[in-house]
Amino acid sequence: MRRPRRAARGRGGLDRGREPLGDVNLLDLTPVREAEWKDADGWVVLERPSPGRGGLRGLGDRLSFAMSARRIRLDDIGSCSWKCFDGETTVGEACAVLRERFGDPIEPVEERLGRFVRYLHQDGFLSYREE
Q: Could you report the per-residue pLDDT of 101-120, keeping only the tens digit for each?
C-alpha cells in the first residue's frame, strides 16, 4: 500500500504551520468549516480560502493558490461529509452517518474520512473546535 505523498516527504504530520495532532484521536475531534461553500443540486462546492501569509515566505503559497482551482466540487461522499462538519459533530459521528448512508462500499470509513479531514484541515478548509 502506498503512503500519501505528504507523509513520504517526511513532513512528520505537520500541517503547514498548524499544530500537529500529537496524541489526540482524530475521531474525537470536531471539525469546523472555515471556507465559503454552497450546495449545488446536492453537491457541495467549496471556495478555496486565500493564503494568509505575507512577505517572501508567503509568495509560494500565493503562487500555488493562483495556479490551483478556486472552486472545488465534492462528490456525494465528500458532500455528505462536509455537511456533517457543522462544529457539533465529531469525525467519529460523521463516520457513523457515512456508514449508514453509503454502506459497505465506503469501508474502511474511518481511514478514508481521516485522510479527507486532514487534507481539508491542511488546506485551510477546516479547523478543529477546541474542547
A: 999 999 999 999 999 999 99
56: its cell numbers:
517572501
**pLDDT reading at 5 higher than 60:** no
In order of 7, 27, 29, 100, 109, the CA distances from 86 in angstroms are: 28, 15, 12, 18, 19
The pTM (predicted TM-score) of the whole model is 0.69
CA distance between the termini of the chain = 34
Residue type, 40: A
* Residues 100 and 81: beta-carbon distance below 8 Å: no
Sequence letter at residue 68? S
Assess contact for 102 and 108: CB atoms under 8 A: no
**What's the length of the chain?**
131
Q: Are 35 and 129 in contact (CB under 8 A)?
A: no
